[in-house]
Amino acid sequence: MKIEQIYTGCIAHAAYYIENNGEAAIFDPLREVEPYIEKAKKDNAKIKYIFETHFHADFVSGHLDLAQKTGAKIVYGPTAKPNFEAIIAEDSQEFSIGNYTIKAIHTPGHTLESTCYLLIDENGKEHGIITGDTLFIGDVGRPDLAQKLVADLTQDKLAEYLFHSLREKIMPLSDDLIVYPNHGAGSACGKNMSKETTDTLGNQKKNNYALRANMTIEEFKKELLDGLLPPPAYFPQNVLMNIQGYESLDTVKEKANNPLTPKEFEAIANQTEAVILDVRNEYDFIKEHVPNSIFIGLHGQFAPWVGALIKDVKQPILLITPEGKEEETVTRLSRVGFDNTLGYLEGGLETWKKAGYEVDSIQSISPDEFAKEYNTAPVIDARKPGEYSAEHVEKAINIPLDYINDHIAEIPKEDTFYVHCAGGYRSVIWASIMKSRGYHNMINIEKGIAGIRNTAVPLTNYVCPSTLK
User: Fold this and answer.
1) Mean pLDDT calculated for residue range 252-264
2) Phi, psi (5° rounding) for residue 217?
3) Would 190 disulfide with which of 139, 170, 365, 465, CB 3.0-4.6 Å?
4) In what order do the strands lie in the sheet with 275-278?
5) CA atoms of 239 and 8, how far apart (whole Å)
6) Residue % of the chain over a pLDDT of 90
7) Which domains does the chain have, with CATH numbers?
């Protein structure tokens, strides 16, 4: 069976392309749809359907743009109520792609409309199943994202739905089926996802905790919900965009293609509440940056961090990018619904400096330098709680980057302190946010815990209280 997984690592997302006999289908497309259209052109195929496994929370789907550009029909599972034209499939309804058959299997739990798609080849053999966020490799979808959209719906009730969906709809299927999930490790849609992006259903029945035989519903709910962290702030906003519709990406990029002189850049920054977002490398940002700018580097998990740290997708944004990376930055922002880019600093930081404007910097030291100064000031660990629990600098305090906005009051504004993460990316984001809010007493530790391990600084796995008081 001809199926291609199109994996985008920065948001841990998998879309799927299927083609047979001149017809094609796309499953869970990203916002930028041209790559799918080009694939179909190379195969001399027409995109017939756009299958959505559910209303996504962690990214804005490309279903509307793709349908408008190709004439393909959008398909959702039962109970879905989009604000645009779509086929709402019945449970077990079948669709044809050439000589292939796509069978919708309603699997509520992650969301009420969550639907998997069974892939049946031209010989009638069941080849695989596209599971969306119902079943991942090593995990299942979190059941708390849809509860705010429906009255009286709770994560406990959704977990019960998911338990039954897995056991009544998925587990009875053949062990040799290939599981094609919507996400891999790094996504906030689950907590234990594997780095592998496909597997057989048989292996998942053996190794995935949620598919354990003889598991009670109470055991399932406890294991599923235990350690589940709050979802990023942009998730419900992306869900609404996927339900209600959004502006075409072409229009978003056209508006953002606005090169600004330093004087124009400064004027817009002063006249609006725009966030100045610097997407260069963290070492470049540490050395010099526009005052009050926020660093989130393109080379990391850029879009998810933007979504986690900038509360409102309608937030105006001004960009500072490496030369030639302007359009890529706008596209990657759009993946999580941030469509309000006002423009970018033409020529980057060099034109800013040549125009005589001031720059700022972040104090940063090597792990060896930190080892000499250890015990002279508090240490803040910006990693996730699980990383911190596994290993951290002795006496370090955990204030994860994900929740920095909730812990501002715990951070000393006058006393010097150190901050680090795993490798140096997140700690610079953390420091840039604090610096933009008037905190100038941080010292960043380069290379993070990876570098600190090679020094004499004591490490421990004892969980210290998350407070500076």
Assistant:
1) 98
2) -65, -35
3) 139
4) 259-260, 341-345, 317-320, 275-278, 294-295
5) 19
6) 88
7) 3-237 (3.60.15.10), 247-354 (3.40.250.10), 364-460 (3.40.250.10)
